[in-house]
Amino acid sequence: MAELSKPVKWEIAIHVLVWTVILLLPYILSSAGEHYMIGGIPGSFITMAGFIHMAIFYFNAFFLYPKLANGWRWWLYILASILLIVVSFMIKYQIVASQFPEVLRSGSAQFVFAPSVFVFMASVIYRRVADSIQKEKQKKEQHAQRLAAELKFLRSQINPHFLFNVLTNMVSLARSKSEHLEPALLRLSDLMRYMLYETKGEKVPVSKELEYLGSYIELQKLRFGDTVDIAFKTEVDDTAAGHEIEPLLLVPFVENAFKHGVGLIENPYIYIRLQIRNGALQFEVNNNYDEQGMAQKDDSSGIGLENVRTRLTLLYPKKHELRIDKSDSTFHVTLNLTLT
Question: Where are the coiled-coil regions (predicted)?
Protein backbone atom coordinates (compact mmCIF):
# COMPACT_ATOMS: atom_id res chain seq x y z
CA MET A 1 0.00 0.00 0.00
CA ALA A 2 1.42 3.34 -1.05
CA GLU A 3 2.36 5.68 1.78
CA LEU A 4 0.29 8.84 2.03
CA SER A 5 2.04 12.08 1.18
CA LYS A 6 2.52 14.73 3.86
CA PRO A 7 -0.12 17.14 2.43
CA VAL A 8 -2.68 14.30 2.32
CA LYS A 9 -1.92 13.40 5.94
CA TRP A 10 -2.43 17.04 6.91
CA GLU A 11 -5.74 17.16 5.04
CA ILE A 12 -6.99 14.01 6.78
CA ALA A 13 -5.93 15.40 10.16
CA ILE A 14 -7.84 18.64 9.51
CA HIS A 15 -10.98 16.68 8.52
CA VAL A 16 -10.76 14.56 11.67
CA LEU A 17 -10.30 17.65 13.82
CA VAL A 18 -13.18 19.59 12.26
CA TRP A 19 -15.66 16.70 12.52
CA THR A 20 -14.58 15.89 16.05
CA VAL A 21 -15.31 19.48 17.08
CA ILE A 22 -18.70 19.38 15.31
CA LEU A 23 -19.72 16.10 16.96
CA LEU A 24 -18.64 17.32 20.39
CA LEU A 25 -20.00 20.84 19.95
CA PRO A 26 -22.93 20.42 22.42
CA TYR A 27 -20.56 19.15 25.09
CA ILE A 28 -18.21 22.08 24.47
CA LEU A 29 -20.76 24.94 24.30
CA SER A 30 -23.43 23.66 26.66
CA SER A 31 -23.48 21.88 30.03
CA ALA A 32 -25.14 18.91 31.75
CA GLY A 33 -27.45 21.31 33.59
CA GLU A 34 -28.80 22.50 30.22
CA HIS A 35 -28.96 18.89 28.95
CA TYR A 36 -26.29 19.85 26.42
CA MET A 37 -28.93 21.66 24.34
CA ILE A 38 -28.07 24.28 21.70
CA GLY A 39 -30.92 26.42 20.38
CA GLY A 40 -33.50 24.02 21.75
CA ILE A 41 -31.88 21.01 20.02
CA PRO A 42 -30.71 18.19 22.33
CA GLY A 43 -26.99 17.50 22.29
CA SER A 44 -27.43 13.80 21.56
CA PHE A 45 -29.44 14.64 18.42
CA ILE A 46 -26.81 17.15 17.27
CA THR A 47 -24.20 14.41 17.56
CA MET A 48 -26.35 11.89 15.67
CA ALA A 49 -27.12 14.52 13.01
CA GLY A 50 -23.38 15.12 12.75
CA PHE A 51 -22.92 11.61 11.36
CA ILE A 52 -25.71 12.25 8.85
CA HIS A 53 -24.01 15.50 7.79
CA MET A 54 -20.72 13.68 7.51
CA ALA A 55 -22.33 11.18 5.13
CA ILE A 56 -23.84 14.00 3.05
CA PHE A 57 -20.51 15.83 2.87
CA TYR A 58 -18.32 12.94 1.79
CA PHE A 59 -20.90 11.17 -0.42
CA ASN A 60 -21.39 14.36 -2.41
CA ALA A 61 -17.74 15.53 -2.38
CA PHE A 62 -16.18 12.20 -3.34
CA PHE A 63 -18.90 10.44 -5.34
CA LEU A 64 -21.85 12.45 -6.59
CA TYR A 65 -20.05 15.62 -7.66
CA PRO A 66 -17.03 13.97 -9.34
CA LYS A 67 -19.22 11.38 -11.12
CA LEU A 68 -22.19 13.47 -12.22
CA ALA A 69 -21.67 17.22 -11.86
CA ASN A 70 -19.52 17.67 -14.96
CA GLY A 71 -20.63 16.84 -18.48
CA TRP A 72 -23.97 15.81 -19.85
CA ARG A 73 -25.12 14.12 -16.62
CA TRP A 74 -25.44 17.40 -14.70
CA TRP A 75 -29.23 17.04 -14.60
CA LEU A 76 -28.81 13.64 -12.96
CA TYR A 77 -26.58 15.29 -10.38
CA ILE A 78 -29.30 17.79 -9.51
CA LEU A 79 -31.87 15.00 -9.05
CA ALA A 80 -29.44 12.92 -6.96
CA SER A 81 -28.58 15.95 -4.81
CA ILE A 82 -32.24 16.68 -4.11
CA LEU A 83 -32.80 13.01 -3.28
CA LEU A 84 -29.79 12.99 -0.94
CA ILE A 85 -31.07 16.00 1.01
CA VAL A 86 -34.63 14.64 1.12
CA VAL A 87 -33.38 11.30 2.45
CA SER A 88 -31.41 13.13 5.17
CA PHE A 89 -34.62 15.05 6.08
CA MET A 90 -36.56 11.77 6.37
CA ILE A 91 -33.92 10.15 8.56
CA LYS A 92 -33.74 13.20 10.80
CA TYR A 93 -37.52 13.37 11.07
CA GLN A 94 -37.75 9.73 12.09
CA ILE A 95 -35.09 10.26 14.79
CA VAL A 96 -36.66 13.45 16.10
CA ALA A 97 -40.25 12.11 15.98
CA SER A 98 -39.34 8.90 17.79
CA GLN A 99 -36.81 10.19 20.34
CA PHE A 100 -37.16 13.98 20.61
CA PRO A 101 -40.82 14.87 19.79
CA GLU A 102 -40.62 17.99 21.95
CA VAL A 103 -38.28 19.53 19.32
CA LEU A 104 -41.06 19.47 16.69
CA ARG A 105 -43.48 21.09 19.13
CA SER A 106 -40.99 23.77 20.20
CA GLY A 107 -40.71 25.38 16.79
CA SER A 108 -37.01 24.51 16.43
CA ALA A 109 -37.54 22.21 13.44
CA GLN A 110 -35.68 24.58 11.08
CA PHE A 111 -32.50 23.93 13.09
CA VAL A 112 -33.01 20.22 12.54
CA PHE A 113 -33.32 20.21 8.74
CA ALA A 114 -31.50 23.35 7.50
CA PRO A 115 -27.97 22.08 8.36
CA SER A 116 -28.33 19.32 5.74
CA VAL A 117 -28.55 21.98 3.03
CA PHE A 118 -25.65 23.99 4.44
CA VAL A 119 -23.46 20.91 4.71
CA PHE A 120 -24.33 19.93 1.13
CA MET A 121 -23.37 23.42 -0.11
CA ALA A 122 -20.16 23.27 1.92
CA SER A 123 -19.28 19.93 0.29
CA VAL A 124 -19.78 21.45 -3.18
CA ILE A 125 -17.48 24.38 -2.32
CA TYR A 126 -14.92 21.99 -0.83
CA ARG A 127 -14.95 19.80 -3.96
CA ARG A 128 -14.57 22.76 -6.32
CA VAL A 129 -11.73 24.30 -4.30
CA ALA A 130 -9.98 20.92 -3.96
CA ASP A 131 -10.33 20.31 -7.72
CA SER A 132 -8.96 23.77 -8.47
CA ILE A 133 -5.95 23.20 -6.22
CA GLN A 134 -5.36 19.78 -7.80
CA LYS A 135 -5.51 21.22 -11.33
CA GLU A 136 -3.06 23.96 -10.39
CA LYS A 137 -0.74 21.37 -8.87
CA GLN A 138 -0.93 19.20 -12.01
CA LYS A 139 -0.25 22.25 -14.17
CA LYS A 140 2.87 23.05 -12.12
CA GLU A 141 4.04 19.43 -12.29
CA GLN A 142 3.56 19.37 -16.07
CA HIS A 143 5.45 22.65 -16.37
CA ALA A 144 8.27 21.25 -14.22
CA GLN A 145 8.41 18.10 -16.35
CA ARG A 146 8.56 20.14 -19.57
CA LEU A 147 11.26 22.33 -18.03
CA ALA A 148 13.28 19.29 -16.91
CA ALA A 149 12.97 17.72 -20.38
CA GLU A 150 14.05 20.93 -22.09
CA LEU A 151 17.02 21.36 -19.73
CA LYS A 152 18.02 17.74 -20.26
CA PHE A 153 17.99 18.35 -24.00
CA LEU A 154 20.02 21.57 -23.65
CA ARG A 155 22.59 19.84 -21.44
CA SER A 156 22.82 16.99 -23.92
CA GLN A 157 23.67 19.61 -26.55
CA ILE A 158 26.47 21.08 -24.45
CA ASN A 159 28.52 17.89 -24.11
CA PRO A 160 28.88 17.06 -27.84
CA HIS A 161 29.47 20.74 -28.59
CA PHE A 162 32.18 20.89 -25.95
CA LEU A 163 33.80 17.66 -27.14
CA PHE A 164 33.79 18.89 -30.71
CA ASN A 165 35.70 22.03 -29.75
CA VAL A 166 38.16 20.31 -27.41
CA LEU A 167 38.92 17.46 -29.80
CA THR A 168 39.63 20.06 -32.45
CA ASN A 169 42.21 21.49 -30.06
CA MET A 170 43.69 18.01 -29.48
CA VAL A 171 44.07 17.50 -33.21
CA SER A 172 46.03 20.77 -33.41
CA LEU A 173 48.40 19.61 -30.67
CA ALA A 174 48.81 16.18 -32.27
CA ARG A 175 49.63 17.66 -35.68
CA SER A 176 52.29 19.88 -34.20
CA LYS A 177 53.60 16.93 -32.12
CA SER A 178 53.39 19.21 -29.12
CA GLU A 179 54.79 18.08 -25.80
CA HIS A 180 51.61 19.53 -24.30
CA LEU A 181 49.44 16.81 -25.83
CA GLU A 182 49.79 14.41 -22.90
CA PRO A 183 48.99 16.95 -20.14
CA ALA A 184 46.17 18.24 -22.32
CA LEU A 185 44.69 14.73 -22.53
CA LEU A 186 44.95 14.42 -18.74
CA ARG A 187 43.10 17.74 -18.40
CA LEU A 188 40.49 16.48 -20.82
CA SER A 189 40.11 13.36 -18.70
CA ASP A 190 39.38 15.51 -15.62
CA LEU A 191 36.86 17.56 -17.57
CA MET A 192 35.12 14.45 -18.87
CA ARG A 193 34.93 13.00 -15.36
CA TYR A 194 33.20 16.16 -14.16
CA MET A 195 30.79 16.20 -17.09
CA LEU A 196 29.91 12.51 -16.81
CA TYR A 197 29.60 12.04 -13.06
CA GLU A 198 29.11 15.39 -11.36
CA THR A 199 26.63 17.26 -13.54
CA LYS A 200 23.69 14.88 -13.30
CA GLY A 201 22.03 16.79 -10.47
CA GLU A 202 20.02 19.95 -10.93
CA LYS A 203 22.88 22.12 -9.67
CA VAL A 204 26.46 21.77 -8.53
CA PRO A 205 28.53 23.64 -5.91
CA VAL A 206 30.00 26.84 -7.30
CA SER A 207 33.48 25.64 -6.33
CA LYS A 208 33.11 22.59 -8.62
CA GLU A 209 32.05 24.73 -11.55
CA LEU A 210 34.96 27.11 -10.99
CA GLU A 211 37.37 24.20 -10.82
CA TYR A 212 35.99 22.89 -14.10
CA LEU A 213 36.22 26.31 -15.71
CA GLY A 214 39.83 26.70 -14.53
CA SER A 215 40.76 23.29 -15.94
CA TYR A 216 39.24 24.19 -19.30
CA ILE A 217 41.22 27.44 -19.45
CA GLU A 218 44.44 25.64 -18.48
CA LEU A 219 43.75 23.16 -21.26
CA GLN A 220 43.52 26.03 -23.73
CA LYS A 221 46.72 27.57 -22.38
CA LEU A 222 48.52 24.30 -23.12
CA ARG A 223 47.32 24.51 -26.68
CA PHE A 224 48.06 28.16 -27.41
CA GLY A 225 51.02 28.82 -25.11
CA ASP A 226 52.23 32.41 -25.49
CA THR A 227 50.52 33.00 -28.82
CA VAL A 228 47.38 34.19 -27.08
CA ASP A 229 47.28 36.51 -24.07
CA ILE A 230 45.03 34.57 -21.68
CA ALA A 231 44.11 35.84 -18.20
CA PHE A 232 41.66 34.36 -15.74
CA LYS A 233 41.02 36.32 -12.54
CA THR A 234 38.68 35.33 -9.74
CA GLU A 235 37.47 37.27 -6.71
CA VAL A 236 35.36 34.95 -4.58
CA ASP A 237 34.25 35.71 -1.02
CA ASP A 238 33.35 33.21 1.68
CA THR A 239 29.63 33.20 0.80
CA ALA A 240 30.33 31.35 -2.46
CA ALA A 241 30.89 28.08 -0.61
CA GLY A 242 27.19 27.87 0.29
CA HIS A 243 25.86 28.45 -3.21
CA GLU A 244 25.13 26.21 -6.16
CA ILE A 245 24.91 26.90 -9.88
CA GLU A 246 23.60 25.25 -13.00
CA PRO A 247 26.42 22.99 -14.28
CA LEU A 248 28.27 23.96 -17.45
CA LEU A 249 26.66 27.38 -17.43
CA LEU A 250 29.77 29.55 -17.77
CA VAL A 251 32.04 27.52 -20.02
CA PRO A 252 30.12 28.22 -23.29
CA PHE A 253 31.14 31.90 -23.02
CA VAL A 254 34.79 30.89 -22.69
CA GLU A 255 34.46 28.32 -25.47
CA ASN A 256 33.06 31.02 -27.71
CA ALA A 257 36.01 33.30 -26.95
CA PHE A 258 38.55 30.59 -27.85
CA LYS A 259 36.60 29.68 -30.96
CA HIS A 260 36.45 33.19 -32.37
CA GLY A 261 39.25 35.01 -30.51
CA VAL A 262 42.22 33.12 -31.97
CA GLY A 263 43.53 32.42 -35.42
CA LEU A 264 44.52 35.13 -37.89
CA ILE A 265 44.07 37.90 -35.35
CA GLU A 266 46.71 40.44 -34.46
CA ASN A 267 47.67 40.32 -30.77
CA PRO A 268 44.85 38.03 -29.70
CA TYR A 269 43.76 38.22 -26.09
CA ILE A 270 41.11 36.57 -23.94
CA TYR A 271 40.46 38.10 -20.52
CA ILE A 272 38.12 36.32 -18.15
CA ARG A 273 37.02 37.70 -14.80
CA LEU A 274 34.73 36.11 -12.26
CA GLN A 275 33.57 37.75 -9.07
CA ILE A 276 31.23 36.42 -6.37
CA ARG A 277 30.19 38.71 -3.54
CA ASN A 278 27.26 38.14 -1.18
CA GLY A 279 25.71 35.56 -3.49
CA ALA A 280 25.95 37.79 -6.58
CA LEU A 281 28.03 36.43 -9.45
CA GLN A 282 29.54 38.67 -12.11
CA PHE A 283 31.25 36.96 -15.02
CA GLU A 284 33.01 38.77 -17.86
CA VAL A 285 34.72 37.48 -20.97
CA ASN A 286 36.51 39.97 -23.18
CA ASN A 287 38.31 39.09 -26.40
CA ASN A 288 39.14 40.50 -29.81
CA TYR A 289 38.00 38.74 -32.94
CA ASP A 290 38.11 38.87 -36.71
CA GLU A 291 34.65 39.77 -37.96
CA GLN A 292 35.16 38.24 -41.39
CA GLY A 293 36.63 35.08 -39.94
CA MET A 294 33.75 34.76 -37.51
CA ALA A 295 31.24 34.81 -40.37
CA GLN A 296 33.09 31.93 -42.06
CA LYS A 297 32.99 29.61 -39.05
CA ASP A 298 31.08 26.35 -39.25
CA ASP A 299 27.37 25.91 -38.61
CA SER A 300 27.93 25.04 -34.95
CA SER A 301 28.93 28.63 -34.21
CA GLY A 302 26.53 30.22 -31.78
CA ILE A 303 25.04 26.97 -30.47
CA GLY A 304 26.72 27.35 -27.09
CA LEU A 305 25.62 30.95 -26.57
CA GLU A 306 22.03 30.28 -27.62
CA ASN A 307 22.02 27.24 -25.38
CA VAL A 308 23.20 29.13 -22.32
CA ARG A 309 20.87 32.02 -23.05
CA THR A 310 17.89 29.62 -23.06
CA ARG A 311 19.03 27.92 -19.87
CA LEU A 312 19.38 31.26 -18.12
CA THR A 313 15.85 32.18 -19.13
CA LEU A 314 14.48 28.86 -17.84
CA LEU A 315 16.49 28.59 -14.63
CA TYR A 316 17.15 32.15 -13.54
CA PRO A 317 14.12 34.23 -14.55
CA LYS A 318 14.49 37.77 -13.20
CA LYS A 319 17.73 36.69 -11.53
CA HIS A 320 20.16 37.28 -14.34
CA GLU A 321 21.30 39.93 -16.76
CA LEU A 322 23.26 38.97 -19.86
CA ARG A 323 24.88 41.56 -22.08
CA ILE A 324 26.78 40.71 -25.24
CA ASP A 325 28.52 43.63 -26.90
CA LYS A 326 30.38 43.53 -30.19
CA SER A 327 32.20 46.68 -31.20
CA ASP A 328 35.52 47.55 -32.87
CA SER A 329 36.44 43.85 -33.23
CA THR A 330 35.96 43.37 -29.50
CA PHE A 331 33.58 40.79 -28.09
CA HIS A 332 32.49 41.47 -24.52
CA VAL A 333 30.14 39.25 -22.50
CA THR A 334 28.87 40.28 -19.07
CA LEU A 335 26.69 38.00 -16.98
CA ASN A 336 25.25 39.12 -13.65
CA LEU A 337 23.60 36.27 -11.78
CA THR A 338 21.94 35.96 -8.41
CA LEU A 339 22.97 32.59 -7.03
CA THR A 340 20.29 30.56 -5.22
Answer: 130-157
